[in-house]
Specification:
Elements lengths: L1 H12 L12 H22 L1 H14 L2 E5 L1 E2 L2 E2 L2 H12 L6 E4 L4 H11 L6 E4 L2 E5 H10 L26
Parallel strand pairs: 1-4
Antiparallel strand pairs: 1-5, 2-3, 5-6
Length: 168
């Protein structure tokens, strides 16, 4: 211990590398950073409210199911977004439109201000807010999420009732 402390003092005194300290609680630091991003997004949305609302309200009203998520269904950028896509895929919720909230800060600000939920993903069904991640998880666990899906896209034959996948 004494050697390490001496090396740290000597390195710092000579202008050399010092040992890097880490945050006492990385989860708290991350949560604080996310809250700052949401606050900036809300300000960006408020500055462009008419334009953003018109575009996204039209998108929500023209699609039966819209998922506001971090990333895209093919490349989710967070675990909750990945899990939401998995749950909706398992329930065969198609067609589904996705909106990447990371594409522009005003998009995240729009859905946060509309839902009053600061964490994404947010699911809209038939033009109105349906559930956030916790709501989707409880709907999935109880089996109610399957009501949003359709039987028309399920496969038949050997793997009947399962997701349409290729068999090799």
């Amino acid at each position: 211990m004494l050697a390490r402390a001496a090396w740290r003092r000597a390195g710092a005194a000579l202008g050399g590398p010092a040992l890097r300290g880490f945050a006492a609680s990385p989860l708290e630091s991350t949560a604080k950073l996310y809250e700052e991003i949401v606050d900036k997004s809300l300000k960006e949305f408020q500055a462009n409210e008419k334009t953003v609302s018109a575009d996204l309200d039209a998108e929500i009203s023209s699609s039966k199911v819209v998922l506001f998520m971090e990333g895209t269904p093919d490349a989710p950028k967070s675990e909750p977004s990945l899990n939401a896509v998995k749950m909706l895929t398992e329930a065969q919720v198609v067609p589904m439109t996705s909106v990447n909230v990371l594409a522009h800060p005003a998009i995240l600000g729009y859905t946060v201000s509309k839902t009053q939920k600061r964490r994404t993903p947010h699911l809209y069904v038939n033009g109105s807010f349906y559930a956030d991640y916790d709501g989707l998880m409880s709907q999935h666990t109880s089996g109610q999420l399957k009501k949003l899906g359709t039987e028309a896209t399920k496969s038949t034959g050997t793997i009947g009732g399962e997701l349409p996948i290729a068999t090799y």
